[in-house]
Specification:
2 domains; two-stranded parallel sheet; 16% strand; binds nicotinamide-adenine-dinucleotide
Length: 270
């Protein structure tokens, strides 16, 4: 029996990366999916790909940072599929301009808060009433290993840390409605965007690699399990969405190969 037979899932940012891989896996396990995505081109392509493989998917052009846009996306999901069982809040990211607090432009802070923290709040605000009506559900929020520890990106860290306590609060608040809420904290995931950014000649293979490239190579040596694929995170999302994880609520699963758990000192050649 498929693990998500006839379930309806609302996935933000599902035109690319982790959420797209998750949408495909959910469909393979019997779910119908709403691809809630800002970028029309990738959103339509994801919908085409899933439907061509025999799945049931709808792309809904949405800005997850806007309340009215999220309400429309939820209404469109219910109009198409009639109910809601799973929310996967995955759209998000950080900006290069996320620099030390005293140097940061306020617009960078607001952008990051809206994308990474306001957005899961908005999908829960509009989605939870439908989950209550359905008799329960599963909410999965995507944070980061940088939400579990300090880092050099204050806005990103604040939002990803906020998601972890928000998830615990959702767990407490909706347990009576049979709704579970959990989070995933990925390490370094080889999405199309990451490959473009890090695995190019200038970044990794330059005669004298940049400090960022050297740090990345050292991390790979120290924490080899911390580098994964979108499909690795999709598998954890499937576990959290399905009945297999029925004892878990309020948890954050650190899918980061130990990077937020133990300290290793680099003793190789630089
Ligand atoms: N990739 C990693 O290494 C990594 C590591 C830790 C955490 N994460 C987290 O995982 C999540 C997904 O990351 P990814 O690498 O798969 O991202 P990605 O950039 O590959 O995909 C994100 C998708 O979200 C969409 N999006 C962006 N802004 C949006 C908006 N306002 N409204 C609707 N859609 C919007 C983009 O168009 C894109 O399709 C993010 O929250 C990120 O912080 C990623």
């Amino acid at each position: 029996m498929a693990k998500l037979q006839d379930k309806v899932a609302f996935l933000t940012g599902a035109g690319a990366g982790i959420a797209k891989a998750t949408a495909k896996l959910f469909v393979a396990e019997g779910a119908k999916v709403a691809i809630v995505e800002l970028n029309r081109e990738v959103g339509e392509a994801a919908e085409r790909e899933i439907c061509a493989a025999g799945g049931d998917a709808i792309f809904i052009e949405t800005d997850v940072t806007k309340d009215d846009s999220m309400k429309r996306a939820m209404d469109a999901t219910i109009a198409r599929f009639g109910k809601l069982d799973i929310i996967f809040n995955c759209a998000g990211g950080s900006l290069q301009e996320d620099v030390p607090v005293h140097e940061m432009d306020l617009a960078v802070w607001h952008h990051t808060i809206n994308l990474n923290l306001l957005h899961p709040f908005l999908s829960c605000r509009h989605g939870i009433p439908h989950m209550i009506k359905a008799g329960g559900g599963a909410i999965i929020n995507v944070t980061s290993h940088l939400g579990l520890m300090g880092s050099m990106k204050p806005a990103y860290a604040a939002t990803k840390g906020g998601i972890i306590s928000f998830t615990k609060t959702l767990a407490a608040q909706y347990v009576a409605h049979n709704i579970r809420a959990n989070a995933i904290a990925p390490g370094s995931i080889r999405t199309e965007r990451q490959i473009k950014r890090y695995e190019n000649k200038d970044f990794m293979l330059a005669e004298k690699p940049s400090p960022a490239a050297r740090t990345r190579m050292k991390m790979q040596k120290l924490y080899p399990f911390s580098h994964g694929s979108s499909e690795d995170i999709a598998a954890i999302a499937l576990f959290l969405a399905s009945n297999d994880s029925r004892m878990l609520t309020g948890s954050t699963l650190a899918a980061d190969g130990g990077r937020s758990t133990y300290l290793k000192i680099y003793d190789g050649d630089d």
